[in-house]
Amino acid sequence: MTSYKELGLVNTRELFRKAVAGGYAIPAYNFNNLEQLQAVIQACVETRSPVILQVSSGARKYANKTLLRYLAQGAVEYAKELGYPIPIVLHLDHGDTFELCKECIDSGFSSVMIDGSHHPYEKNVALTKQVVEYAHARDVTVEGELGVLAGVEDDVSAEHSHYTQPDQVQDFVKKTGVDSLAISIGTSHGATKFKPEQCTRTPDGVLVPPDLRFDILEEVERRIPGFPIVLHGASSVPVDKVKQINSYGGKLKDAVGIPESQLRRAAASAVCKINIDSDARLAMTGAIREVLAKNPAEFDPRKYMGPAREAAKELYKHKNQDVLGSAGHA
Ligand SMILES: [Zn+2]
Predict the structure, then answer these.
(1) Using CA atoms, how far apart are residues 70 and 17, in angstroms rounded to an integer?
(2) Which residues pair with 112 in a beta bridge?
């Protein structure tokens, strides 16, 4: 048993309280390997931003759960070495069972998500409550979810989304005791968030996605004022990254994300955690493709993973400074 407090990590409670009051959102970045973790911590130290390090089930399988955990738990010391100790949360993304959440809590996570959104409502309530009771006894915070996002994210996939029903949120929060709530208002997992037929096109052919459902967000806020809200699937799929990938041999088709202006608007509201994963994947892939296309004789992984790390870091800095507004709040 390892408590996150011995490791210098923090839970989300105080961070979310400040973020809701200050009209910004805490970035939640997924990582699967050393370079992604370095990029996240470097970017957040340089922009003086708190950060939520997210580990998904897919990441635990890919990198080995023990290695991944030690990597994340080293991040606190790493930030200090870089010259500024930022608040770091180690969070389980999309926990699907009580056992998985318990295992993460027992091994030093400071926050977990229990995603019961695909279950019938009453089962979601019961499962979430069970995790909350175990977590709160150890001062670990819990994120629940109501409503289902479309798209594919590691092990999480849903054919069809359905929006969060605002008339459920008050009851859910009260019955479960969760610390934050992920809602579905039109974001989705992956790099292709909308089909072309759902979008309009600008004269030069750029796909413009439909707006997020701010009416649902406002209705949720009215029911549970000041309660921390979470947005998943909030990558913007930058046009320049898609272009870079495709001009160096990639074949990404019709990738379209959430406009950053809409995320800024959400961050200024009760949305206090925004999950971004696909954008960093695109940034890294673009950098790697470019290096290898320009230097076909290169075979030192540091020569392409290094630029990939740099590209991800610049992207995270941009998100903290220009989209989420978390820069300067560490
Ligand atoms: Zn998600």
Answers:
(1) 28
(2) 92, 142
Q: Name which of 9, 179, 180 is nearest 87 in CA terms.
A: 9
- How far, in Å, from the CA of 96 to the mean position of ligand 1? 12
Blockwise average pLDDT, block size 10, the chain, 330 residues? 93 98 98 97 98 96 93 94 97 97 97 95 97 98 88 57 89 98 91 81 82 94 97 92 96 87 95 96 98 98 98 98 98
Q: CA-based Rg of the chain, rounded to a whole angstrom? A: 19
How far is ligand 1, taken at its centre, from the CA of residue 93, in Å? 7
What's the CA angle centered on 199, arms 196 and 204, to 5 degrees?
Answer: 85
Residue 274 pairs in a beta bridge with 27, 231
Write out the two tokens for 270: 């009760």
Between CA 217 and CA 179 the distance in angstroms is 17
The environment of the single-atom ion ligand 1, i.e. residues with CB closer than 5 A, is: 232
Question: Is 93 a known active-site residue?
Answer: yes
